[in-house]
């Protein structure tokens, strides 16, 4: 009896000979030299900065008035002179000292408020109310009150810096906590975590991308507020950091030196954003697979 007559159909599997790799063509196209360079983010950003520098130099040459818009080369010359004389490093050190104290204290206050807000119903209501009240209030608007309460000195600067940091960090941290999935929250509860252990082991790791964003925004607000406040303190007390350096240069009509102060602010901002925060991001959210 044949296989067909018995109701069975024999399936013959096709036999393929191994293909010659040379006949398959290019599996992965190698990158060109331009594509390899273009894939490096630092080189792309450096190229953009170089274009801005060239545009600055050309634009200042067209204006041809150093009192209105000095060239990039003149600004770099003034920057180098101020660094070598020790004036600019001293001003930078004064500003950074105040910035670190105000920023650090603001982050601590924001952490306390957020922890209270996510653990109790009353704390959540209080946090929502305070945020709605004070977040729209510019920090620099509190400077007159700070001068009355703390006088001329670091106390007033730190007061306005704390205000500029607290609400940005608090809002982003709270948003991150609220975005944590109910499943992850339930896991923490089932493990018996409550209070601060629940915050540190469950909420903070899950919400850290939002927290890091709040820290970046808080830093930017604090840096801008500090420079603006130092401009006022420069008028009032004749001393200060980078803000006073810029104000003093303007009064003396040393415009390249004033632009050197502005360039210093930009450089410090780039270093903090692309070095310090990038290192934190690499060792946290990128390492955990929370960001590409």
Keywords:
single chain; 292 residues; mainly alpha; MetI-like fold; flat
Short synopsis of the structure:
With 292 residues, the chain is an all-alpha fold.
Can you characterise this structure?
There is one protein chain. The protein is mainly alpha-helical and 292 residues long. The chain has a domain at 93-255: Orthogonal Bundle (MetI-like fold), CATH 1.10.3720. 73% of the residues lie in helices and 0% in strands. The protein is built from eleven helices and no strands. It has helices at residues 33-38, 41-63, 72-85, 87-119, 121-134, 143-150, 154-178, 182-190, 195-237, 242-251, 255-282. Helix 4 crosses helix 10, helix 8 (182-190) crosses helix 9 (195-237) and helix 9 (195-237) runs parallel beside helix 10. The chain is flat and about 70 Å long. The relative contact order is 0.10.
What is Rg?
29 Å
The class by helix and strand makeup works out as mainly alpha
β-strand percent reads: under 5%
Shape call? flat
* Distance linking N and C termini: 64 Å
Task: Supply the CATH architecture of the domain at 93-255.
Answer: Orthogonal Bundle
The portion of residues assigned to helices is over 70%
CATH class of the domain at 93-255: Mainly Alpha
Number of strands: 0
Largest sheet: none
Q: Which regions have little confidence, pLDDT < 50, spanning 5+ residues?
A: none
Order of helices and strands: HHHHHHHHHHH
Name the quaternary structure.
Answer: single chain
Q: What name does the CATH topology of the domain at 93-255 carry?
A: MetI-like fold
The CATH superfamily of the domain at 93-255 bears the name MetI-like
How many helices? The count is: 11
């Amino acid at each position: 009896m044949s296989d067909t007559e018995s109701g069975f159909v024999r399936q013959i599997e096709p036999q393929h000979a191994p293909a010659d790799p040379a006949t398959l063509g290019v599996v992965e196209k190698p990158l060109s030299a331009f594509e390899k360079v273009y894939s490096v983010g630092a080189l792309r950003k450096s190229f953009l900065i170089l274009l801005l520098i060239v545009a600055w130099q050309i634009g200042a040459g067209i204006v041809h008035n150093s009192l209105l818009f000095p060239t990039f080369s003149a600004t770099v010359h003034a920057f180098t002179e101020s660094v070598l004389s020790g004036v600019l490093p001293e001003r930078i050190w004064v500003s950074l000292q105040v910035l670190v104290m105000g920023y650090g204290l603001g982050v601590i206050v924001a952490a306390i408020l957020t922890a209270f807000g996510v653990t109790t119903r009353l704390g959540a209501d209080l946090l929502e109310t305070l945020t709605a009240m004070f977040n729209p209030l510019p920090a620099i608007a509190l400077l007159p009150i700070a001068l009355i309460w703390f006088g001329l000195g670091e106390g007033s600067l730190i007061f306005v810096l704390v205000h500029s940091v607290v609400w940005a960090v608090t809002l982003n941290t709270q948003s991150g906590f609220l975005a944590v999935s109910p499943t992850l929250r339930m896991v923490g509860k089932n493990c018996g975590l409550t209070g601060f252990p629940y915050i540190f082991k469950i909420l903070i790791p899950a919400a850290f991308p939002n927290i890091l964003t709040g820290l970046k925004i808080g830093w930017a607000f604090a840096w801008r507020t500090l420079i603006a406040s130092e401009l006022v303190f420069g008028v009032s007390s004749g001393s200060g950091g980078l803000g006073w350096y810029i104000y003093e240069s303007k009064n003396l009509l040393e415009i390249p030196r004033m632009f050197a102060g502005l360039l210093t602010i930009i450089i410090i901002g780039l270093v903090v954003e692309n070095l310090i925060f990038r290192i934190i991001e690499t060792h946290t959210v990128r390492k955990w697979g929370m960001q590409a």
